[in-house]
Structure formats: structure tokens, C-alpha cells
């Protein structure tokens, strides 16, 4: 037992990297952060950190920044204020090392929105607002840096609010608008698999009127697309998910194959859309609960 404890401590020590100097100086010496440093040079944010306290930085690596859309890169290039807001969202007040990043912990960012931490033991994954942390505990004189594999974007509201403003979900939103489902999707910590408009348009023409005319069926379908708790794609694995359906047999089967994730017969085509109370994954097929007889 003592040997195991010794080895465990040794591994923890090796995983922690200590840099001489500030966060900015540490990032200059870290592998894979050159693109982030270039973005930071467009602002003066890090120059003001050292006299204001200690921080935790979630630093997108070069690959994450390379995979940004051309439109978003152009927006950051042309709008320094927007770039500063996004960078501030990647910086949390206080020092939080790997051991401090526990499931559902919320950190206050310099941008003022919260950064939600999630831990998925089955996948050995820890995420910050859905972005997987791939390199922990790079210690600087004024804080700690964790490297992430995507760029974090502040949420645009709660789940139902996002459905309301995104035209891609207008048909799905029409099923819940003005109903109790608005509160259901806004007042709970949830994962929503949201069919886009094309998913509904691919159904027989009678399907949507059938759903709209039957309140019990509508409720069953909405609940079948939602799972309690926050499940970002880095935490997903092959298995079944319990939905909000009133029928315990209405489970969702998740399958991972290479870079594709399917939920029942639906494929996730836009993943990890952050909301203040959870996450939305866009799917290309409407899911019908097995307990209900639906044309589709």
C-alpha cells in the first residue's frame, strides 16, 4: 500500500509542470500554444493580470484555434472587443488545480459568465464548458494553465432560450412554445438531443400535425429527447441513457464509431452547444419513444 501511495504521488508530481515567471511567460514556453499567444498579443489582458490576483487559464491549443471557422477567425481579427471577451471567458478568478476541478463545479470567469467543470470517470475525461482538458497543472507565478482542445464560447442563455433564437430549431421549438416544456427545459440541468428542422421535414407530412394534436404524445416526444444531467461529447461512451420519459423503457442507445456519435438512429451533427443549464446536441433525425405508436 505504501508503495502504491508513493507511486501515485510521484505520478502527480511529474504531471505538474512549474514555470518560472507569469502566466504569459509560461505560455510562451509551452508547446502548442503559439496561436493563442498570437491572439493574446492583439490584446493587453495578460499584461494586467499580475497586479490583480491569481488565475486559472483554460488555454486552447493550436489545433483548437486552427479548427475555428473562417467566419469566427475573421470576426476575432476585426473585432478586438469580441476577442477580448472570448479570452476573458477562458480565464477564471482564483487558482484551481486538477484536484480542484470536481464535477459540476462552476468557476467565475473574467468575462463574468460561469465556466462549468464536468468529470466523466468512465472516459477519464475532464471538461471545461464542454472542452476537454488535455494538459493539466502548468504552474506559473500568478496562477495555473490547463490546455484544452477546443475554444470555449459563452452560452447564449438557457436551453429553451437557445432553441427560441436559433432558426435551425424553429419546428422543435414550436412544439414547446407556450407550454410547460419551456420551464422543463430551462429549470433543470439537462442534455437535450435537439432535432433540426430538416429532421422534421424528412418525416411524413402527417407527423407534425399528429404530434401537435396529441398533448400526451407531444410530452412523450419532448421528454424522450432530454436526459437529466450534463453530458458533453467527451463524456459519451457506448451504452444506454435514461431519458425524462415517464416510461422507464424509453432509453436512448449511444454508439461511438470513429468520429461519429449516434443516438438511436440519429447522428449528432453539431455537438456541445453550451447553455446556462446544460448542453444541446443537434441531431438529424426525430426520436420517437418506443412506448408510443407514432408514424415516422
UniProtKB/TrEMBL annotation:
Output the InterPro entries linked to this UniProt entry: Adhesion/Biosynth-related (IPR050904), FAS1_dom_sf (IPR036378), FAS1_domain (IPR000782)
The record's PROSITE patterns line, in alphabetical order, gives:
FAS1
Q: Does the keyword Signal apply?
A: yes
Q: Which Gene3D superfamilies match?
A: FAS1 domain (2.30.180.10)
Q: What keywords appear on the UniProt entry?
A: Signal
Q: Signal peptide position in this chain?
A: 1-15
Residue intervals of the FAS1 domain: 20-152, 156-287
* GO CC terms: extracellular space
Coiled coil stretches, renumbered: none
Determine if Signal is one of this entry's keywords.
yes
Pfam families with a match to the protein in the record: Fasciclin
PANTHER family xref list: FI19380P1, PERIOSTIN-RELATED
User: What protein does this entry describe?
Assistant: Transforming growth factor-beta-induced protein ig-h3-like
Q: Which organism is it from?
A: Octopus sinensis
**Which gene name belongs to this protein?**
LOC115219319
